[in-house]
Design brief:
The complex is a heterodimer of chains A (194) and B (249). By secondary structure, chain A is α+β, with helices and mostly antiparallel strands. Chain A has two domains: 32 residues; 155 residues, no CATH class. Chain A has four helices and seven strands; from the N terminus they run αααβββαββββ. In chain A, the strands form two sheets. Chain A has a four-stranded antiparallel beta sheet. In chain A, β1 and β2 form a beta hairpin. Chain A is elongated. Chain A starts with a helix and ends with a strand. Chain B is α+β, with helices and mostly antiparallel strands and 249 residues long. The chains are: A alpha+beta (194), B alpha+beta (249). At the A-B interface, α1, α2, β4, β6 and β7 of A face α1, α2, α3, α4 and β9 of B.
Chain lengths: 194, 249
């Protein structure tokens, strides 16, 4: 006569273990998902942000012959100060007393029409070469807090010439006084979902 | 007589359980596969293409800028102009990799100015090369314009079209020019487009200035086609592209 007890116990053990595993996986997935949690869905969100950011910079960087692009004009006219979105406008960080302390340019116009309306947080940073030509300087133009771990960064390089008119308060300096090359600026747009 | 133990029902129950769990696992896995295969995430988000386009753009712009600066000085020999051009572009190519190194990318930029050096005129195609688009629109919505054109080589006919709805017209050119030809046109109500036709059969240089219908000043000018070769390297790819650059604009 056969005794199936051992076989039965093994099968029961396997079934119980599988059920426990499924319960644990489901419980972790259900409880730890936040809007900023990395997941396959989040990759999709990051891709959308990246394409949106590149489109913004690409649209601003178009220039017809004889003219600077809007993005380049914004870099040239920037006064070196940091601005933050206060819900209605980009105001100077720590000094919002006066109307003229607001930032209004091509970049803020398009950010207001795209990222602000969609509730996408964003920073804008400029990285350029110091006038010794070897070290880097990074300055914030727009700062809305530290980005999350799933933030997306898009870049655009802008070349400035001596013949361009630059704001006197602009921290970007001439790295090559011997020729018309002024500096090379890396404009970084950092986007993340709140 | 002892108790008869029949465990068949328990076996059947367990087997049913295991089959059900197996089905759930298979469904979840299949769902994940379908989800992943339908996500265009990687295809749409490849950032390298933006970097390449940006690099081509700024290297071309720098080339135009260096050419304009070099040729903007009167009483200077062409050799000296090319030396000044090379000086600026070398400084640019020396500093550019420092910025790209921030993102772990390596770049190099080089230039070919032989057309300028040996006076090889550009074709009147859209990109200035013999294989470029032969019939193309230089600019649209023009209110007034001044076209200055110099033809150094021609085989057949070259046409400049001033195309609008009310009175489209064509200027036919069939011979080379010793002195630049100038055509001044304007309109009051019906803006026109300036069109080049049969640009592959003709070479030379041109400058077109004027105003668009919304009173914006425009400038289009080409003296030579120079070539810029840009190389972009990352840890996973390397690309090498040569692009024609119209100078001065």
């Amino acid at each position: 006569m056969f005794d199936d007890k051992a076989q039965m116990h093994t099968l029961e053990g396997v079934a119980a273990a599988t059920i426990m595993l499924l319960v644990i996986v489901y419980a972790i997935d259900a409880t730890s998902m936040t809007p900023l949690t990395s997941s396959t869905a989040n990759v999709h969100v990051e891709t959308e942000l990246q394409v949106l950011g590149q489109d913004i910079l690409g649209a601003l960087d178009y220039a017809e012959p004889g003219y600077n692009s809007k993005l380049k004009n914004d870099v040239l006219t920037w006064n070196g100060k940091e601005y933050v979105w206060n819900g209605t406008k980009y105001m100077e960080n720590g000094n919002a007393s006066y109307l003229q302390n607001n930032l209004t340019n091509n970049l803020t116009n398009i950010l207001g029409a795209t990222l602000i309306t969609q509730g996408i947080a964003h920073n804008v940073e400029l990285t350029f070469l110091a006038n010794n030509g070897t070290t880097y300087v990074t300055r914030r133009m727009i700062y809305n807090g530290d980005p999350s771990e799933n933030a997306v960064i898009v870049f655009r390089k802008i070349v400035l010439q001596n013949s361009d008119t630059i704001n006197s308060g602009n921290p970007i300096k001439d790295i090559d006084p011997s020729t018309n090359l002024y500096n090379i600026v890396d404009v970084k747009l950092i986007l993340w979902r709140m | 007589m002892g108790i008869i133990k029949n465990e068949d029902a328990q076996f059947m129950l367990l087997a049913g359980f295991i089959i059900a769990i197996g089905l759930v696992i298979t469904t979840v896995m299949l769902n994940n596969i379908i989800f992943e295969s339908n996500m265009a995430g990687e295809a749409g988000g490849d950032p390298i293409k933006y970097d390449i386009m940006n690099l081509m753009r700024i290297s071309g712009d720098e080339m135009k800028s260096a050419y304009r600066n070099a040729t903007n000085v009167s009483g200077v020999s062409k050799g000296k102009m090319i030396a000044n051009f090379t000086n600026q572009t070398q400084n640019f190519s020396a500093n550019l990799p420092k910025i790209y190194a921030l993102h772990g990318e390596g770049v190099s930029v080089s230039w070919d100015v032989s057309n300028w050096k040996y006076n090889v005129s550009a074709n009147f195609t859209d990109d200035g090369t013999a294989t470029g688009e032969t019939n193309w629109t230089v600019i649209e919505n023009v209110k007034d314009s001044k076209i200055t054109i110099n033809i150094t080589n021609i085989s057949g006919i070259f046409q400049i079209g001033l195309i609008n709805i009310s009175k489209p017209s064509w200027i036919n050119l069939t011979t080379t020019t010793n002195t630049p030809l100038t055509f001044i046109n304007s309109t009051t109500i019906d803006p026109y487009s300036i069109v080049f036709r049969f640009g592959n059969t003709t070479s030379g240089n041109y400058t077109i200035t004027g105003n668009t219908s919304n009173s914006r000043v425009f400038l289009r000018s080409r003296e030579y086609i120079l070539y810029s070769t840009v190389t972009l390297s990352t840890s996973i790819m390397r690309t090498n592209i040569t692009i024609p650059v119209s100078v001065p604009w």
